[in-house]
Amino acid sequence: MMKIKMRKLLGILLSSILVLSVVGCGKSDKSGQINLMTWGGDFIPREIINQFQEETGIKVNYKEVTSNEDMQSLLEANPDQYDLAVVTDYMVDILRQNEYLEKLDKTKLPNFSNINPGYQGNYYDENDEFSIPYAISTSFLLVNPEGVEKLGASPITSYQDLWQEELKDNIVVIDWSVEIIGLVLKSLGYEYNETDPTKVEEAKEKLFALKNNIMRFETNTPEDSLINGEAVAGFMYSNQAVKGQASNEKLKPVFPKEGMPIYIDSFVMSKKAPNKEAAYRFLNFLLQPEIGAKIAEITNFSTPNKAAEEYLPESFKNNPMLNLSDEVIE
Questions:
Q1: What is the pTM assigned to this prediction?
Q2: Residues sharing a CB contact under 8 Å with residue 309, sequence separation 6 or more, in sequence order
Q3: Pick the CATH number of 11-136+265-329 from 3.40.190.10, 3.30.830.10, 3.40.50.2000, 3.40.50.12710
Q4: 169-200 residue pLDDT tens
C-alpha cells in the first residue's frame, strides 16, 4: 500500500448547517454521568457504551451531531455543558488554539500507552496534551471492474481515470467540498491540502469537467450506489468501502497511485467539563485493548490502539482497507 501523507484541513474551506439529533445531553452536577458529543451512525457503538455503564454505573448522555463545526459551535456556546467530544484532526487544532480544551492528565489515563506511536505527535497536538486518537479512516475508490469494462472505459487505477467520458453518470462521491477538491488537486499532482490560489482555481475548473460523470453526491451511504449497480465507481471512506465489498463481492478497492488522505478522529475534553473524573474513566475504558478491538470490528474503522491488534480477527488484520501498515502511517 502506498504511503499516505497526513493532511491539514483548512477551516476557511468549511461551512455547514447546524443539524442536531433529539438525543438530550444536559448539564449535570453529578459525577455519575458524562455528556458526550459525537457523530451518528453508531460511531461509538451502543454495545460499548452499555458495557461501560454496566461496569461503572456511570450514565453516558450521547448527543449526535453532523459536522465538526456543529461541535465547535456547541462547545463555544456551552463549554460547561459537555464533557467530551469526538472531532477530526483540524478541529482539535482550532479548539486548542481557542483554549476550549482541557489539558489531559495522563496519570488518569494509564491505557494511553496502548496508542500506536505512529498516531501520536500530530500537527494538531504535537505533545498529545489535548486529544486521544479514537478512529482512523482513509478515503479511496471502490470500483466495479466488470461494470467499468462494460462501459468501454479503461481500468481505474487513479483519480485521473475518473475523468473518462465513458463513465458518464456512473460515479458517486462524498458530499464534502474539502474531499472533492482534495481529490482533484491530487489528480493534478498537487498536495491534498494545497492552498495556492492559482492551483486551487485550476482544480475547480477541472472539477467542473467531472460534473457529467458524477451521478450522485452522497456522504452517508455512497457504497449503496455501487451495491445496487447504479454506479461503477465511488470515492468514499474506508469503512463505507468495507461495507460495500461485503455486500457485493464484485466490488474492489482501488488505492489511487496519486496517494490518499488519512483522518484521525480524536476525543477531546472541554476545559469546563462538569464531570471530568467520570470522563477520564470513560476514556481509559475505551483505551483497553479488548475494547479497542471491539470498536474496530463493529465500526469498520482502523484502530490507533496498537495493543488491540492481537484481539482482532485475521480477516480484519488481512484487509488492506482496514489494517494500515506502520509504513503507511509514518
A1: 0.81
A2: 293, 303, 317
A3: 3.40.190.10
A4: 999 999 888 889 999 999 999 998 899 999 99
* CATH class for the region spanning 137-254: alpha beta
Domain boundaries, the chain: 11-136+265-329, 137-254
Average pLDDT, the chain: 89
Statement: residue 5 has pLDDT above 50: no
Q: How many CB atoms lie within 10 A of CB 35?
A: 27
